[in-house]
What does this fold into?
Amino acid sequence: MKSSSDDVLHEMTETLESLAKKGVSRRDFMKFCTGMAALLALPASFIPKIAEAVTGGKKPILVWLEYQDCAGDTEALLRVTKPTVGQLILDILSVDYHETIMAPSGFQAEKSLRDVVENHKGNYLVVVEGSIPMKDDGVYCCIGGRSAVDLAREVCGNALATIAVGTCATYGGIPAASPNPTGAVGVKEAVPNATVINLPGCPANAENISATIVHYLTFGKLPSTDKLGRPYFAYGKRIHDNCERRGHFDAGQFARQWGDEGHRQGWCLYEMGCKGPETFHNCPTIKYNEGTSWPVQAGHGCIGCSEPSFWDTMSPFYKRLPKVPGFGVESTADKVGAGLAAATAAGILAHGIGRAIKPRKEEGGE
Ligand code: SF4
It folds into this structure.
């Protein structure tokens, strides 16, 4: 009689053979597991456990819902070439519904989604990309004759957990920018009873999506989060903390015009409006496009896209924000978030109109 370790070994072998057919070697796979352990801040002893978790056992069912968005998160993950979400989706998860990449369409596609909710209640994962319009009964985004909010309440409300990817799905994003014509909100606000983890960013980083899924597969639960529902492993530190231009900030060396000597020398972009000191994300350490680069490395300041209401609270993008209460080297995400909310509320009151963005006078920031 076969032991359970034989079963795991057999399943691992099958998955590795399947990945090999797609050009992903066993070495690549172990590199992926090592990278995931590092990203999740786990010791090296967890690497075999991760390898076993992502290759063994029954494939978890996942459905991917797409609402008011630009499909940037789907694009970001489908363009990766090393074994990460692209392969996870095809080999490790059972993706039963994804509007952008699935073969079925029309009634057949909608039936796939219904079947998951009816037959696997409480046992499937959902990824949501895009914001959910609440105004006028959600009429501004409908799929198969049903509003996004109606669908999200049913699908996310009956799921094991929902991973909101990108700033639109987490906090409403650009569709929610003032005056928010469709009443756009993130998943947690639209479906308060759902278990939701937020991976904001524009787009969400495919590595962080991978790591969240890998954490779930390895430990059977989602990673711990801050008050904004963001996992600490990816959003526990400010952009500013790990930025490669930080030495220039500390030395008082700033670019003051695009293309000036300081900009050409790679000096700090704070004077050009960089919001890295107010933004929590691991962009400087994992970067985008498989570690190729990220905005600050390319010469553009951070625009704070992984913070709630960034389009309203972080603009004008090319000017320093007024001095934000709570900002200092000892600040945490929650303190800075509260400071930004207070600064925004004060701005709305001061201008007496329902619009948070107004050109603000610099107040001699940090
Ligand atoms: S470029 Fe931005 S994130 Fe980097 S050190 Fe300067 S202010 Fe901080």
Summary: The two ends are 69 Å apart (CA to CA). Residues 239-240, 243, 245-246, 249, 268-270, 274, 276-277, 296, 301-302 surround iron/sulfur cluster (CB under 6 Å).
